[in-house]
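Chapter review. Work through the record for S-adenosylmethionine carrier 1 before attempting the end-of-chapter questions.
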Amino acid sequence: MAMNARSSPTKSSDELVLRSELWNGRDEPRVAFASVNAEEDKPFNFLHVLFDCAIAGGTAGVFVEAALYPIDTIKTRLQAAHGGGKINLKGLYSGLVGNLAGAFPASAIFLGIYEPVKQKLLETFPENLSAFAHLTAGAVGGAASSLVRVPTEVIKQRIQTGQFTSAPDAVRLIVRREGLKGLFAGYGSFLLRDLPFDAIQFCIYEQLLLGYKLAARRNLSNTENAIVGAFAGAITGAVTAPLDVIKTRLMVQGSANQYKGICDCVSTIAREEGISTLFKGMGPRVLWIGIGGSIFFGVLEKTKVVLAQRHFNSQDSSSFKLD
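Structure tokens for S-adenosylmethionine carrier 1:
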């Protein structure tokens, strides 16, 4: 009787159950990171979620940076070039090693903060405010990771534009010439770009994911996750392109201090080079972030599955020993 009762619900009740399961995070994030088993729902473990998401985020971040670094270098050189200056296509991997050293902890911090904050907000907010939960969690994760992201970005972009040849030299000379604050050059413009970027990208990704799952009535494959991630990344990359140009100009100016701040940078660029300069490098940026979103979210979701399977096997092993 139990089987018959379970196998004959109406379509509308099935949709309500599926929506409820997706809303409560019982599909991927919760199973992967909260150690929920078939017999008992354990309480939300913030540290457990933070650790696993940090591993997944750091892994995904390194994959993206390693795969798409040459496109990022071209984008940076296009944005940094004044007027009709030509860009150098040599040394497209300059600074890659140092960037990877910063990319792992930065991505780890972001995802390690984003996922548990998102889950807590989803538990607090009504279903129709899920987008607000994703936006808020993205901004909080971006703010936390900026303490690592900004120095990494400053060093990377100055190497990409030929000011330094290695990360150790860049750190040593920047600190000598500009002090520790030199490592955080353009911090305000970075937050102006990255907080909206992180919030919008992850909100688009999460909302598309929920809609896709409800329509398909199943969890997505890794390829489908990657496609959704590419779409979210490309849209966000295009929307935030002018902010990225401003951030790049402020970060690479060094001790010359050509621009006195965000507003001065915008007005100087518009006056001397034209408004269209704020959209320089948009093509490589959209390509880079679109492909990067595909790789990042594809690797992220795959890593979640691997970690979930590891926890499941560990629990099974413990149960077997107890029996």
